[in-house]
Amino acid sequence: MAVHCNTTKVTKFILLGFTSERNLQLLLFSFFLPMYLLSVAGNLGLAILIRAERALQTPMYYFLSHLALMDLCSCCTVAPKMLLGLLKGCDSIPIPACGLQMLSFAAASDAECCLLAAMAYDRSFRAMSTCGSHLTVVGVLYGTLIFMYLRPDGTYAPQTDKMTSVFYTVVIPTLNPAIYSLRNTDVKHAVKKRLSSGRHQF
Question: Where is the G-protein coupled receptors family 1 profile domain (predicted)?
Answer without folding.
Answer: 42-123
